[in-house]
Design goal:
The protein is of the alpha/beta class. It has 14 helices and 17 strands. It is globular. A hairpin with a 4-residue loop joins strand 9 and strand 10. An eight-stranded mixed β-sheet has the order 4-3-2-5-1-6-7-8, with helices on both faces. It has a six-stranded mixed β-sheet with strand order 12-13-17-14-15-16, sandwiched between helices.
Length: about 400
Amino acid sequence: MNNFIYQSLLKSSLCYRINPSLKQIKRFINKIANPQNSLDASCIIAGTNGKASTSYSLYFLMRNIGLNVGLYTSPHIFDFRERIIYNDRKIKEQEIKDIYRTLCRLKEFNELTFYEKMTAISFIYFKEMKPDFTIFEVGMGGRWDAVRVIPSKTVFLVNVSIDHLEYLGKDRKTILLDKAFITHNREEAIIGFRMDRNSIKSERCYCYGEEFYFNKDNQFILFSEKTDFGYPEYLPPLYKSDVASALFYLTKNFNKRDVVRSFKKTVFKFPARFDFIRTNVILDIAHNPEAFFYLMKELLSRFSGNISVVFGICKDKEIELILPILKHKRIKVIVYEPEAYERTLQKKDLIKLLEKYRILYYDKICLKELRKEDCLCITGSIMTVSKFCREYGYSPSIFWNEG
């Protein structure tokens, strides 16, 4: 049944095509009486890298406070129901089947993209579940993303770097302007980096490195005052601003003792994001130059041996900016073709690019040959991670309940 509904959603829609407009989603939600308007106790999280880690940080901290929490993220790793989470479980097959059967009769629903359909289904589901708080992760950009229609008072802009150039713009400044649209007409924006605030259109704006940050001793600073929070040592430095952004929101809006207690209980793990499934086997869906740079930098500093990179990527990514990062004497590239998909870069085409940059490559994964000082990193796209896990019997560190 799960696969039947998934295929039906794909078949009856514009599939994965990007739709740079809010007209269709607005027309549809007006038809069904705007269920998203019941979700004012919510936030929206936008950015290039760090959206998921900020979303999960907020989610687990809120759950450990004792709240009923909804979480909407994309894309999924194995099961499309992973996108819609309520209190640690995926939306049930019967629940999504019931919602789909009602909506599929509507012409306006069948005109939506797959992503817009899933977003609309999440609105209806969370309205029915009545969570204390709901977290929505932007799919791409900010200006035209379907979650922008949610009346959240708070938005997060956690990071802006080069990605999706075809849709968002050819440089960081243009991409920032697109993503910053998510801040328009909001009460507050929480920014995960220092920036010129003129492009932020919310009533209030708070930036990492100014109003809040982790200092050099990994202590959380809030409005120049030291707090009881210390950055988890097991996390790489690149997640500092994401965890700090979540802490900033919580300390402003919840009882401090509850937040401190929750922080002590929370183990910060992000599925397929710096996700160790064995001592020296890691899943990470890095797929843009900045993410690859920090991932390789961290792994090279943690392991003294070879870093074997199981690498498969989509052809619309900035591959020729990523490949030079992999040209290192301790990095070995293992060519791996992700699950078949129209955007997948075929193995033979990836090999041509590797040869162009004179990067040595292999085509076999040998887990038995890994030494304790070596690391195997599966990366490049979520499809690469998904195929590897299915093929070798692994799963990410967070696996949601079926319900």
